[in-house]
Amino acid sequence: MKRFRRTAVLWGTAWAVAAVLCALSAWTYADTRGDGSLSYAKARDAVLDAGRQEVAQLNTVDTAHLDRDLTRWLAATTGPLHDQLTRSRASDTTTLKASGTSTAGTVTDAAVTELDTRAGTAKLIATVQVRVTPRSGAATTDRKRFEATLGRTGPDWKLTALTAVPLGAS
Q1: Among the residues of the chain, which ranges form H helices?
Q2: Which of 94, 99, 126 is nearest to 110 (CA)?
Q3: Residue 125, beta-bridge partner list
Q4: So where are the chain's domains?
Q5: Residue 69 neighbours by CB under 8 Å, 6+ apart
Q6: Which pTM value belongs to this model?
Q7: Closest to 129 (Cα-Cα) out of 112, 144, 111, 149
Q8: pLDDT of 3-28, one tens digit each?
Q9: Residues 6+ apart with CB under 8 A from 52
Q10: One CATH from 3.10.450.50, 2.130.10.10, 1.10.10.10, 3.30.70.1050 for 39-165
């Protein structure tokens, strides 16, 4: 009988400890999930990911697939930049077809410099490596720096402005 009581007490204690640990884990998770700094960090990461993709997209065009690439430019933008690209699409197509030059942009580094989650605006700086392939001749690599402004459109972030930053500027 003593052995049965001791086993029952041990099992009861183990279950009680497990229940307390479970409750503490649930409370910690709920507290962290509602943490403002965590949601801000997630928003910053979303801006950084979207900005990197969209800056690379706007530095990439394949003359063999102009319509597809210019459509991607429009999909990556909103606001004034989207309006500008829409207005200049026909002339961009003509110019790019005539030059026959294709480019492939890769963001090598980027950082969010401003983020206002309430207003849905952000700024990002990025360095981009652009591989330029002319119709004839050897391909070259160019390095560029950009400052991008992004706006939130629903759950997504899109470019509203993209400005080249001269290499000598700080």
Answers
A1: 2-33, 36-57, 66-75, 79-87, 89-99
A2: 126
A3: 111, 147
A4: 1-33, 39-165
A5: 60, 61, 62
A6: 0.78
A7: 144
A8: 778 887 788 888 888 888 888 887 77
A9: 107, 110, 126
A10: 3.10.450.50
